[in-house]
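Good morning,

Attaching, inline, the backbone tokens for the sequence recovery test we're adding to the shared suite. The designed sequence is right after.
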């Protein structure tokens, strides 16, 4: 990652193109609003009506980030998040809870279920973009650190031989 990549990530209106974003909400209005806002930024947006419907889509498309409503039929957001985070194949996908509830209890419950962050509805374009930027930045930093650690391990191996 070079300096221009970091500068681009720090801008409030820019996210990497071609990210796959999933929005899980029982409200068609919320799904459609998020889809429009994120599509304008070059994201591929997948939508699901509830957590149950989302599980097969997550397996098929492996989104880069998931936004999930808390109050939904069949599987609520807490249950959906716990299932995603409980699966070793998908636990590294960031999950952001969406809710009209803004109590500390609800936010803590989201964290205990495994979510990385929490956005209160109604959300804005900048709320969604900021959440995406935060998680993309964390992933890029982790990838960079992993690369550095791999290089150091290779150097250490060469020195011991």
């Amino acid at each position: 990652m070079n300096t221009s990549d970091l500068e681009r990530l720090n801008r409030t209106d820019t996210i990497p193109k071609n990210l796959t974003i999933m929005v899980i909400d029982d409200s068609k209005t919320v799904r459609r609003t998020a889809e429009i806002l994120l599509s304008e930024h070059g994201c591929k947006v997948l939508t699901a009506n509830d957590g149950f419907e989302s599980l097969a889509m997550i397996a098929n498309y492996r989104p880069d980030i998931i936004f999930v409503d808390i109050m939904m039929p069949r599987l609520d957001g807490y249950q959906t998040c716990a299932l995603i985070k409980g699966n070793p194949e998908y636990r590294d996908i960031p999950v952001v809870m969406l809710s009209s509830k803004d109590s500390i209890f609800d936010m803590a419950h989201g964290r205990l279920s495994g979510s990385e962050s929490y956005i209160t509805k109604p959300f804005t374009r900048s709320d969604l973009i900021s959440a995406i930027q935060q998680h993309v930045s964390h992933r890029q930093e982790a990838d960079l650190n992993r690369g550095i650690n791999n290089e150091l391990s290779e150097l250490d191996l060469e020195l011991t031989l």
